[in-house]
Amino acid sequence: MKFADEFRDRDLAERYAAAMAKLVTRPWNIMEVCGGQTHAIVRYGIDELLPPAINLLHGPGCPVCVTPTAYIDKAIDLAGISNVIFCSYGDMIHVPGTNHDLDMARAAGGDVRIVYSPLDAVRIAQENPTKEIIFFAVGFETTAPANAMAVLQAAAAGLTNLSLLVSQVLVPPAIEALLSAPDNQIHGFLGAGHVCTIMGVEEYEPVAAKYGVPIVVTGFEPVDILQGVYMCLRQLEQGEARVENQYARVVQAAGNLEAQRIMNKVFEVVPRDWRGIGEIGQSGLGLRPDYAAFDAEVRFGAVQNGAEKETPCISGDILRGQKKPTDCPLFGKSCNPEAPRGVTMVSSEGACAAYYRYRRTSSGASK
Amino acid sequence: MTKDTEFSLTRPTPTSAGGHIRLAHGGGGRLMHNLVQDIFAPHFGGRAIIEGHDSATVDIGTSRCAFTTDSYVVKPLFFPGGDIGTLAVNGTVNDLSMVGALPICLSVGFILEEGFPLETLDCIAACMASAAALAGVSLVTGDTKVVERGKGDGLFINTSGIGLVPENLEIGPKRVEPGDLILVSGDIARHGIAVMIAREALGFESNIESDTAPLVGPVQRLIKAGIDIHCMRDLTRGGLASAAVEIAESSGVGILLDEASIPVHANVGAACELLGFDPIHVANEGRFIAFVAQQDAHAALDLLHQEPFCDEAAIIGRVTDEGSGRVAMTSLVGGSRMVDMLSGEQLPRIC
Question: Which of A162, A274, B159, B205 could be disulfide-bonded to A125 (CB atoms 3.0-4.6 Å)?
Answer without folding.
Answer: A162
